[in-house]
Design a protein that fits this description.
Number of strands of chain A: 13
Radius of gyration of chain B: 21 Å
Largest sheet of chain B: none
Radius of gyration of chain A: 26 Å
Oligomer: heterodimer
Number of domains of chain B: 2
Helix content of chain A: 40-55%
Mean pLDDT of chain B: 82
Number of helices of chain A: 12
Low-confidence stretches of chain B: none
Strand order of the largest sheet of chain A: 5-4-7-2-3-6
Largest sheet of chain A: 6 strands, antiparallel
Helix content of chain B: over 70%
Shape of chain B: elongated
Structural class of chain B: mainly alpha
Distance between the termini of chain B: 63 Å
Chain lengths: 456, 106
């Protein structure tokens, strides 16, 4: 059944800051194509199609490589509105494209010779890879291959994440430095002052972003330190960790956003973890995270003592209803993925949200439900329909049972409003199933908001 | 949903950039044939503009920087636009002298 509810209104609170998606894409296209435009203006003796294609592709790839620094730098002014999960996903996917362009670079130079005389072509390739004048470019070429592959397989490497992240950053800086040397020393078009300035400027911006991430940001975090003020069980193997700022200031955030938290380490340490904020902006300066025991660090999160110094990098993320129009909210969460939805519910109750809210919260067993009593209390303060779904329910469980299949979703959502906003957060298989199920139920994809950091 | 859109966007931008590079390559002027220069004039140009600091002993090293003759000509041409640049019309003569000397040494 589909109904139409009139007068959608915006969820209160500031939407995440940042460039609108179209502006970010336009800026990226401009940066990627700028070297081609500058090179095309130069009256350089031409060297044939394949040589020019090789130069063209590698110039685009170098611009993309330098843009990668900004995409991965957690700059809210760039990625705040789009969502840092999407920005990072783009960073990962774009790495394949630029790697392909860079891999082709030497082979396209040798292609005419390879076709005419394969032996001479391979000799030429060997000469290029052995040439002292091309050494910086060759090293950057190999480093890029290593950097992309270790990025793809980082979970399989016998390296701690922090060490991988440091090596990734340093490797990228080395590639930028070597590549700019290669471009300016032997690049066909580098004699053009405008293009040389473009490369030098973009490289400087990229390296400055690294300095910001590894030096400036930790210094700012040290100034705005927090203390753990509470750490208590929230559900089975889940903990509520509350922080309060030493300075009394907590940055404004939108309900549903997340932050990277560093609990008990130096602000210069790379040991930090992304956690959804489960408190409402209205509860500031207190800020609360709900953390599941799910890894090396989080398995011991319950042992973090009250009083521990903490540093936050955030808020980040576009998983929020803030600034979006809706006449109904449907919050669908699974496991600890319900944490940001709890923050949204708390803010809705604080703001006396006048529209209906459907909550579908899936877990395996009852003991995994976060804040059961609070959810009942929130249901009383909002026009809220609470569906607690268990895949392994106890005998006599009154709620829906099973996984969040289209059938369960349909049963929980008798009224499916085209103007409703559907926020989905949970394990990846659950999000995939729910997103597919909602589309099957006729929900427009543009009304479904989700956030994910692991991809299949 | 958005993660599917971002993958499509990435591949679309990749295609756009690749197409940009193809258009760039296809619209460059056709390569010109370098006319054979008078060896004496080429040698004289090198003596006049380069020999004070450089000699034929360095030519093999330059050849190792850019092993491909065609690439090397382009590289030397760019270099000589920045490094003690000889007059425009004599640049090709200097390059011709270097290439001729290298060819004779092989």
């Amino acid at each position: 059944m589909t109904t139409k509810t009139p007068k959608p209104s915006h969820f209160p609170g500031p939407p995440p800051a940042g460039l609108p998606p179209w502006a970010l894409v336009a800026l990226y296209v401009a940066v990627g194509l700028a070297p081609l435009a500058l090179a095309a203006l130069r009256d350089e003796p031409a060297r044939g199609f394949w040589h020019e294609l090789s130069s063209g592709l590698v110039m685009v790839a170098f611009a993309m490589t330098l843009a990668q620094f900004l995409l991965s730098g957690r700059f809210r002014s760039l990625s705040g509105k789009v969502g840092i999960d999407l920005t990072m996903r783009f960073h990962q996917l774009a790495a394949w494209s630029l790697l392909a362009f860079v891999l082709l670079h030497p082979f396209l130079y040798a292609l005419p010779t390879l076709v005419a005389d394969p032996a001479a072509g391979f000799a030429r390739l060997r000469g290029m890879f052995a040439s002292p004048g091309l050494r910086t470019g060759v090293i950057a070429w190999w480093l890029l291959v290593i950097l992309v592959l270790t990025g793809v397989w980082k979970d399989r490497l016998p390296l701690r994440y922090e060490l991988w992240r440091l090596s990734h950053g340093l490797g990228a800086a080395a590639i930028a430095g070597l590549s700019v040397h290669h471009a300016l020393s032997v690049g066909t078009y580098a004699a053009d002052p405008a293009l040389a300035t473009f490369w030098a400027g973009l490289t400087a911006v990229a390296l400055a972003s690294l300095v910001h991430v590894y030096l400036v940001k930790p210094l700012l975090q040290r100034r705005d330190a927090y203390r753990v003020t509470a750490n208590a069980p929230a559900a089975d193997r889940m903990w509520r960790v509350a922080l309060e700022p030493e300075s009394g200031r907590t940055p404004n955030f939108a309900a549903g956003q997340f932050a990277w938290a560093n609990l008990g380490h130096s602000p210069f340490s790379l040991t930090e973890h992304p956690f959804s904020i489960s408190s409402a902006p209205a509860e500031r300066p207190r800020i609360e995270f709900t953390i599941k025991e799910a890894g090396d660090f989080t398995n011991r999160v319950g042992e973090v003592p009250v009083g521990t110094r903490a540093y936050l990098d955030g808020p980040h993320g576009a998983f929020t209803p803030a600034g979006r129009p809706a006449c109904r909210l449907v919050l669908i969460g699974g496991g600890v993925g319900f944490a940001p939805l709890l923050g949204i519910l708390r803010q809705l109750a604080h703001d006396r949200w006048p529209h209906p809210v459907d909550v579908i919260y899936g877990n395996r067993v009852e003991s995994q439900i976060i804040g059961r009593d609070e959810l009942d209390a929130l249901a009383g303060r909002l026009e809220m329909r609470l569906n607690l779904v268990l895949s392994e329910p106890p005998p006599g469980w009154p709620g829906p049972t099973g996984d969040l299949t289209p059938e369960v979703l349909a049963a929980c959502l008798p009224e499916r409003d085209q103007d409703a906003l559907y926020l989905v957060c949970g394990p990846v298989p659950m999000m995939n199933a729910v997103e597919r199920g909602l589309v099957e139920l006729g929900i427009p994809a543009g009304r479904i908001v989700s956030e994910r950091f692991t991809y299949e | 949903m958005r993660h599917v859109q971002i993958a499509r966007l990435t591949w679309a931008l990749t295609a756009l950039f690749a197409a940009g590079a193809v258009v760039f390559a296809a619209t460059r002027p056709a390569p010109e044939t370098i006319a054979a220069a008078d060896p004496a004039a080429a040698s004289a140009a090198f003596e006049a503009h380069c020999a004070q600091c450089h000699g034929p002993r360095e030519f093999p090293y330059w050849a190792s920087i850019e092993p491909d003759p065609e690439e090397r000509r382009a590289w030397l041409d760019r270099l000589l636009q920045r490094h003690y640049p000889p007059p425009e019309e004599e640049r090709a003569l200097v390059i011709e002298h270097i290439e001729r000397t290298l060819a004779e040494g092989e």
